[in-house]
Design brief:
This protein is an all-alpha fold. The chain has 5 helices and no strands.
Length: about 160
């Protein structure tokens, strides 16, 4: 780990939080890539609205990822967003490449958002348990964004 900065956490707690933050960073990067895969390949009724929405949600995921990466550095760690790390550590399975219809993509992507939101809520609890309220707050805000975007995306599926 790098030299500790202004976190005020002991080294052991900071290392645990860096590991937790990096694990969630991998999930968020994977979800971002899934959103782009969906964006590029969806077809059918409602295409343009979902296509445009995915640009917006992808940008929010990038902002959340950036905030998490910055927190990792603040705690003296190194953010690891390499493709090999993401592929190894993400909780998400590979995005299916055999779907094209808007409703199929909406269901798939909404499910993935919910999975990532669940891991963020677990991270909130873990960070709170070790006394890192700043990281818990970061995860809480990330969870709110992911939940809201899951709702936005899912609202485009009339076949729930």
């Amino acid at each position: 780990m790098r030299e500790r900065y202004a976190s005020g956490l002991d080294d052991n707690t900071a290392k645990k939080m860096v590991d937790l933050l990096n694990a969630n960073l991998a999930n968020l990067i994977d979800l971002t890539l899934d959103g782009k895969q969906c964006h590029w390949n969806l077809q059918g009724s409602g295409f343009i609205g979902v296509h445009q929405l995915l640009d917006e949600t992808t940008e929010r995921l990038r902002e959340v990822s950036d905030t998490i990466a910055e927190r990792i550095v603040i705690l003296g760690g190194e953010p690891n967003g390499l493709a090999s790390r993401v592929a190894k550590d993400s909780v998400l399975d590979d995005y299916p490449t055999d779907i094209t219809e808007v409703d199929q993509h909406v269901r798939e992507l909404t499910s993935r958002y919910k999975t990532v939101a669940e891991t963020l809520r677990e991270a909130i609890e873990t960070a709170g348990d070790v006394g890192d309220e700043d990281t818990a707050d970061l995860f809480t805000e990330a969870s709110r964004i992911i939940d809201k975007d899951a709702w936005f995306i899912g609202a485009n599926n009339p076949k729930k």
